[in-house]
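Re: folding output
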Amino acid sequence: MARRPPDPDAPPGRPVAAEPPLADAQPFDNLEALYEACGAPVHRLALRLCRSRQEAEDLTHDVFLRYWQQGRYEPSRGPVLAYLLLLTRSMAINRLQQRRNRWQLVQRWSHQLFPAAVPGPHDSVEQEDLAERVRSALAAIPASQRQVLELAYYEGLSQAAIGEWLQLPLGTVKTRSRQGLIRLRELLFDLRSTP
């Protein structure tokens, strides 16, 4: 692409801005000129979408290569930069989706190749023992604290939802929850230390 001659009225030492060809809806005949005109915005978008400099460089290269090889750009539909940015976004989304699909495939294969260890009798006994300790500790705390903790952990309710459910102020729910957790921790620590 030919550069504009320097402007005689421009202040000295100040670079002359090249005319932006980006609003031009005509296709470029020269890939180098196209890259010089549109490469920076395409790379910035690729970097924002891929979040990796190497992937952004690869994507930028592939966008210009696809533009050049496929020749699908239609000048009547808008500026070439808009087409390239749309192509960049589309290709980035495809790459991210392919990466996610590969990761899911790896996860599936790893579960098939390396199945989770089947708990042995010793593990089952430990889990049953822990469950019994938690049940005993819950039974030992005051009913008001136990009710709040059971709604939070077994029902999955937030403290605000528990307050609405029990018709209690949020501060009361928070206090009962905190006191119940402190008491549970003390009881479970004592149960762990006894044989």
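--- second protein (sequence, then structure) ---
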Amino acid sequence: MLKTLRDTLLAGLVIFLPLAASIFVLYFTFRWIENLISPAVHKISGFYVPGFSLLFLFLTILILGLLSRFALGRKIIERLEKSFLKVPLLRTIYSATKEAVKVLVEGEAERIRGVVLVEYPRKGIYAIGFTSGKSIRVACEKTGKNLVNVFIPTSPNPTSGLVVLVPEEELIYLDISVEEAMKIVISGGFSN
């Protein structure tokens, strides 16, 4: 009975934590925007409608998207990014977030070519990995093998992990979608 209770609590925790973290981040993001713009809007117009931050956030994203379509806008964005990358803590957060968003926004075919099993961390033990990017030509030449870049994500945060170069003949390609494999990684193996 205690084992069943423990397993049920763990299953609930696996569902609750990602939901709570997502709601927490969204709530504080909107709250921060709300606190930032509400005094200015109230001062200019004399009134303020709660939830205006959603519209403001949408317009900000739209304007940034428009800026990125023009040469001058791209230069402004590049300069802003360069200044972000000069600040140690901000650099880490910004670059990790940018890469995670790229993976989500770009087609999975462009970033992730396939789901594989790779023997890691030792022979006889397998980890789920994703083939990614192009082979590193210099590494292939030095080893004389056709090496494939494989990203092995950590659980439950698949945005971190490590890249290993594996000879193509040692990879076992799985007939599952990237989404299914991500669910397995994020759930810590609890998902089927």
